[in-house]
Specification:
The protein is α+β, with helices and mostly antiparallel strands. The chain is built from eight helices and nine strands. The longest helix is centred in the middle third of the chain and has 18 residues. The radius of gyration is 17 Å and the shape is globular.
Amino acid sequence: MRTVLTDPSVTGSVIYRQSKGPDGSPVARSHRGDWRDAQVKVVCGDCNSGWMNQLEQAVRLFVPDLINGRPVMLTREDQQALAAWTVETVLMLQHTHLRAHQVAIPPADYAGLFAAKSPSQLMRVIAAFVEPPGRGSNVEATIEYLAEPRDMTAIATLMARDGERDPQDLSAYTATLRIGFLVLHVIRVGSAQFVAGLSPGPAMQSYVTTIWPPASREQAWPPRSLAEIGGLIALARSMDAGVNVG
């Protein structure tokens, strides 16, 4: 990362994080500083230097191009690796919030990633593209992170109405991460059947690239810029607006 984010005009950066508190109220924090020095002391040495390091190594050859907005052809293996790295990073970033605000991602998802070393069947992971706020200015918004719990109860009600199987659990959330031009988005719903039915709606189809489950062929990145439809908020609110993203 230190070799990637080297715009000489950027003399400072802003780290922006948003989640929801236990009562559902939004909690946002931002500060100036170098996010590359951020640490979360929740990982043992064996994991940090073992399988988690392997996830990092698997994406290091192409993630710099994605962060800098350069066109990339993502092989199936690249898509799998990027999806796994995305989930790992999103799960770690929840621990940059206060403990009372770590309410979006359930402990079971940490155990699931540890066991499988890949996203679960309850997840969709997509990649998108947007111009970084403040690009070319004295202060750039280097990283943005948003994690929100979703109403799985409402989804379960819809499933029951349609005669579908009961969900596996009642955990649901979306998490969005932007680093440079690269936007990564995780949708987690407690029903593999429901997740399997998610597909890009007409308004989003040309703005996202699904990387989990990976496509059987190479996929071109970047898609069209999210700035055309409202940026990260449009992506985070896509489920609320009734548009399924897959």
